[in-house]
Amino acid sequence: MDHSIAPDLASPQFNADPYPFYARLRAEAPLYRTMLPHKQVAWLVTRYENVLGILTDERFVKDRLNALSPEEKVKMPWVPGVFKPLTRNMLDVDEPDHTRLRALVREAFTPRLIEQLRGRIQMLCDNLLNAAQRKGSMELISDYALPVPATVIADLLGVPPEDRRKFHRWSTKIVSVSPGAETGLEGLQLIPSVWRFTRYLREQFKQRRFDPKDDLLTALVQAEEAGDKLSEDELAAMGFLLLVAGHETTVNLIASGTLALLEHPEQMETLKKNPWLIKSAVEELLRYTSPVQIATERFTRENVAIAETLIPRGERVLAVIGSANRDEHHFENPDTLDITRESNRHLAFGKGIHHCLGAPLARMEGQIAINTLLHRFPNLRLAVAPESLRWRRGLFLRGLEKLPLGF
Fold first, then answer.
1. Structural domain total, the chain
2. pLDDT band at 85 (very low <50, low <70, confident <90, very high)
3. Tell me, what's the pLDDT at 307?
4. Burial code of 66-87, b = ≥16 C-beta within 10 A, e = fewer?
5. What angle do CA 320, 144, 389 make, to 5 degrees?
6. What Cα–Cα distance (Å) separates residue 287 from each residue in 10, 84, 167, 404?
7. Beta-strand pair 298-300/60-61
8. What values do phi and psi take at 316, rounded to 5?
9. Could you read off the pLDDT of 207-235 as tens digits, one per residue?
10. Alpha carbons 220 and 68: distance in angstroms, whole number
11. What residues contact residue 300 under an 8 Å CB cut-off, 6+ apart?
């Protein structure tokens, strides 16, 4: 396959419809060496079986330092210190640190505890739709898809609701950058957002030390004090990861999922008439829209062969979940939205030790938000021409900037 035609994988134009490119890669170059926007070389892996392998194989590590020789470590480019806390989050560390960090928050996300949030999420959805009804129109993301998960994760952590737009503004900026940005100009532009976010979190943790509350931030502070060896940086990184991962992806599930249903009116009608199909519908929307398009980067700890090609040790590998979820060798009619699809083994939440901790919460938020929206507004429609919709810039996440709706 001609490497000169590789698109900018993070661009809004590419994110509008990345699937034909992925299909071509699966057919012609299942392991594809490309250049990311910041001149970082990466290997794109696009077939379901290979993506699953990378997510579960410990030869692929999250911390790049674990893939480098002592000589290579010395040559690593300097990264501004302000970014250091963010690299200590459990998504970017390997064993044994990963298990230690995950154990501290795992209890808060068990299906049993998440189930207790059902009434709160339902009330939130109803209140937001009441407000939209009074206004007579809605922009789905700012009026609904964002406030639902942002409020729930803010509640769980104990972040005041009035601060949620602030942390969404910071996180939007942070998640839009590509690997390698922190060492260049884009990284310098990122510093104010990262600095404000970490300063805000440290301030919240400081308050919990003096005034403990019944929330996750207090639990993390107390775990640190109980000697669970959460460093100050790990504390900030955990708060950052939970806030960002706890709302960014679910916003995309609700918004992209709603758009997919509007684009497939027969599927939307089926769901409206059979609201009990919502569980399989959300699984299919997760597969079809893949809110996380590409799993966060991994590095080869040793030489690894994939699809008859050798990836040398120390290289960056990107497992393309959006492609795996449309793999014709794994899913029947993969480009067809079918909300009754059975045995839907999509990879939207990842697999292996880094499988999404918040999956039960994201599923419940998606199910309640979408069903409530269709029930309350049975005449839902796009309020703009489909071609005028804009997608956000970003390599790992795929989501709309705005979704204006009429009802």
1. 1
2. low
3. 86
4. ebbeeeeeeeeeeeeebbebbb
5. 55
6. 20, 33, 28, 24
7. antiparallel
8. -85, 130
9. 999 999 999 999 888 876 556 667 788 88
10. 32
11. 59, 60, 67, 311, 312, 313, 314, 315, 317
Rounded alpha-carbon distances, angstroms, from residue 388 to 85, 122, 361:
38, 31, 32
- Cα separation, 49 vs 330, in Å, equals 9
DSSP 308: T
d(CA 216, CA 246): 13
Across 175-184, 264-273, 347-356, the highest mean pLDDT is recorded for 264-273
Which residues touch 236 (CB under 8 Å, ≥6 apart)? 85, 86, 88, 198, 201, 202, 205
Can you give the CATH number for the domain in which 339 is found?
Answer: 1.10.630.10
Phi, psi of 185 (to 5 degrees): -60, -40
Averaged pLDDT for residues 339-349:
96
Rounded to 10 deg, the angle between the 248-263 and 164-175 helix axes is 80
In whole angstroms, what is the distance from residue 278 CA to residue 375 CA? 12
Q: How far apart are alpha carbons 222 and 350 in whole angstroms?
A: 30
317 close to 42: Cβ distance less than 8 angstroms: yes
State which residues form the domain around 221. 3-406
Tokens for 141?
Answer: 């993301």
Instruction: Please name the helix (run of DSSP H) or strand (run of DSSP E) that holds residue 43, with its range, or none.
Output: strand 41-45
pLDDT value, residue 219:
86
DSSP-derived pairing of the beta strands 304-306 and 309-311: antiparallel
Q: Please enumerate in sequence order all residues whose Cβ is within 8 A of that of 141, keeping only pairs 6 or more positions apart, or say none.
A: 251, 255, 400, 401, 402, 403
Which residue shows structure tokens 């690593």? Answer: 76
- Here the tokens at position 23 are 């299909």
